[in-house]
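Quiz preparation item.
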């Protein structure tokens, strides 16, 4: 299941407020109204079907929005107005349908949820429409694909194109999304500390240089206060540092596309979609990656919502322009249909392609030529260790903890642990929304 990225939804909150609250033209950026954000799409693929619920509220003074997950809600999906399928909360604010649940073309789906305070919400029904298959996928390197403002100076990307045969006997609405998988080689960072597999024994030191570890599992950063904890304790420097630790097993970074791209087939009904650009994959990393391209079907109402969203988030002239109208979705309070929420609950059939992006067509551009300039390390020193991708997300090179022996002119860590036979340690690849230890379908070793 893939849904409208939360980042885009929150960006829209900066521009819109519920229609029942205030006129967005009066004060579009400083509303302190708490906004419910719904993010969820039922698909027909064998994948987790997840509904995300969040609440966003602007600070009264700054107008900046902060977001918290809505926990302990009662969430369900009603199928064909009769079957009620309950969701269970997996992590805060994420509600998953049973693992064997799949959407089916032609069936109707409706979201219902009750928040912890008893407020009830319901969506309009969404009938899953069929989708034409993607018949061809190709990529072309474009050093100027992205604007300088989009990704902090990274302008180079691979433009992804698809072909598809549009059915002639029906009115179709399309939406395209993408997801990039890159090998990640650095799995943990410790600020003003070091990573330890085991808990550090209290008030136990070795030679006034080392903190001593026990046998109880810890697997986290040990960051002692600056200074000396006692006469025999090591002296922890009063400075700022970060040590980065490599992964102990294969790990993949997950990068989501945030652009909204939709199409009404009225101009091509029954014709071919040829070289339709559906993605711009940033050139962060010279190593191969995997791109999941999805072609989704939309209802007419869902198309209008996403089209309006596209126009407001991607073609806005800026804050000096007249703010757009309120962008309420298809979810509203059960006792007051005038109070809608941000986001859209939809049901979409999906044509999915796993596209291997080998990046062999990149010519004449080395890492850093189209992105931020690294003043610490020259581009010639980047290798296959994942430093390119790390730098793209952290704006710095990885800084490994120095390895023993700590003798002579060899650097030693600011915090040293005993025993040191496993220094620096490798760290686990933790499963998150942006990282996974599980090899994605279609990945080539």
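Solution:
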């Amino acid at each position: 299941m893939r849904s409208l990225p939360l980042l885009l939804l929150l960006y829209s909150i900066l521009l819109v407020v519920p229609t029942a609250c205030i006129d967005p033209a009066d004060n579009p950026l400083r509303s302190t109204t708490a906004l419910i954000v719904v993010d969820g799409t039922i698909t027909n693929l064998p994948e987790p079907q997840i509904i995300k619920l969040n609440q966003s509220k602007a600070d009264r003074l700054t107008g900046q929005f902060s977001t918290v997950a809505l926990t302990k809600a009662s969430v369900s999906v009603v199928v064909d107005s009769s079957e009620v399928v309950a969701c269970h909360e997996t992590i805060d604010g994420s509600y998953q349908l049973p693992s064997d649940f799949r959407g089916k073309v032609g069936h109707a789906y409706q979201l219902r949820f009750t928040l912890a305070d008893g407020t009830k919400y319901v969506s309009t029904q969404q009938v899953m429409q069929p989708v034409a298959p993607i018949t061809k996928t190709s990529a072309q390197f474009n050093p100027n694909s992205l604007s300088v403002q989009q990704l902090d100076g990274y302008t180079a990307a691979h433009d992804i194109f698809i072909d598809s045969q549009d059915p002639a006997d029906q009115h179709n609405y399309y939406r395209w999304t993408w997801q990039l998988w890159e090998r990640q080689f650095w799995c943990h960072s410790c600020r003003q500390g070091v990573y330890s597999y085991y808990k550090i024994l209290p008030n136990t030191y070795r030679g006034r240089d080392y903190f001593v570890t026990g046998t109880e599992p810890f697997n986290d950063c040990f960051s002692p206060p600056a200074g000396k904890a006692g006469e025999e304790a090591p002296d922890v420097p009063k400075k700022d540092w970060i040590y980065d630790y490599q992964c102990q097993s294969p790990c993949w970074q997950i990068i989501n596309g945030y652009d909204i791209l939709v199409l009404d087939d009225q101009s091509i009904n029954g014709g071919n979609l040829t070289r339709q650009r559906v993605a711009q994959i940033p050139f962060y990393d010279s190593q191969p990656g995997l791109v999941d391209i999805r072609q989704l079907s939309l209802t007419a109402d869902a198309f209008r919502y996403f089209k309006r969203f596209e126009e407001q988030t991607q073609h806005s002239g800026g804050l000096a322009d007249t703010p757009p109208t309120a962008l309420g979705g298809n979810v509203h309070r059960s006792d007051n249909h005038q109070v809608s929420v941000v986001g859209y609950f939809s049901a979409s059939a999906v044509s999915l392609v796993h596209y291997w992006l080998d990046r062999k067509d990149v010519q004449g551009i080395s890492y850093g030529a189209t992105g931020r300039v690294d003043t610490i390390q020259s581009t010639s020193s980047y290798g296959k260790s994942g430093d390119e991708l790390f730098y793209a997300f952290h704006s710095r090179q990885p800084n490994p903890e120095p390895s023993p022996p700590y003798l002579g002119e060899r650097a030693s860590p600011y915090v040293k642990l005993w025993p040191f036979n496993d220094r620096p340690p490798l760290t686990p690849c933790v499963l998150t929304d942006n990282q996974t230890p599980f090899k994605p379908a279609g990945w080539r070793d």
